[in-house]
Amino acid sequence: MTLIDFLSSPVFRFLLFPLGSAVLGIGIKYVTRNDNYAKFQKEDLAVGLELLLTACLMFLALTSDRSLQMASVNQDLATALASKDVPKAQELQIKVSALSQELAASGWVLLAMFVGLWSVSTLVRKLGWASKDEMRIVSGIALPLVVGILALIVVMAGAS
Amino acid sequence: MNLKGLRKQFISLVPIWFSVIGSVASIVVLLDFLADRLGISSKLSLSLASGIIAAAAGLFAKQLVEQVRRLQRSPRVFLSYSSTEKTFAHEIYTALRDAGAKVWTGEENLRVGESIVPAIERAMGESDAFLVLLGRESNANVLMELGMARKQGLRIVPVVIGEAEIPSDLAGVFHLKANGESNEVIKKVVDAIT
Fold first, then answer.
1. B-chain residues near A120 (CB < 8 A)
2. Looking at this predicted complex, what is its ipTM?
């Protein structure tokens, strides 16, 4: 696999890139902190909800890409049918069918992601704080992180 | 704990219930989609989803039982103090919370612009005891709250700090004196309340 292949693969675009951005964000948060409070805190790792939101928006963009792709394939199909090119029409018909199935599932996945975003953020608000500025490890940091990474994997799987 | 307070506590748990259900549903749908994309059999993904739902339900039921037990045995305390006793009040607040009591303070619960008297009356209505810190300088708000607590028939636990004088209407009430080691006094307060 060449570098260009890797950079354009769904694993990089939809999983490693957002995860890398989150890790860089944590680093920037840490290095720009006031020197008097420069110690790394576990709260710096609380980026799960940002990852989940990124996954939602990426999946939304992916779904609209698929819709545009479907419109284009449909147009090609119409042309193939008009010119009575049966093998091409059959091939395009299979593509349309696959895209329709993906689009049918996309709505539910998007709904699940937004419900997840709402419910996990409510759980963090209600159960995730041990005090005014200290978060609980499981309900405040780990749970959103796990759901965020799961959502990114789903987006990557949806794109590949 | 009175029934009204218990009901209020349960109502406050409703958003948490919905959030847990929402989170589990979301995770199950995402895992199902992933299993479908990765070609994992529907039987396996169904078993995985059932396992997650069962684990979440078990954890939630356990937490609910613990919450009910805690609510049944945890006393609710109204803590009244003036700003001069803020540091000592915060120490008592932390000790009581660590001992499982629910502590109400104006500093934590009152919002700017809110009408004080109805909020205090409501809080006192849900409290089992009224803990008042009496400092050397008498404070109008503390005395007002003391009067309201007496009117509501709350159990009053007075803590006299230093050489402060006890208000005349508390003359017959046994009080704690806080003029020595604060940890000792805090322990006595916690024992008296819980």
1. 19, 23, 26
2. 0.80
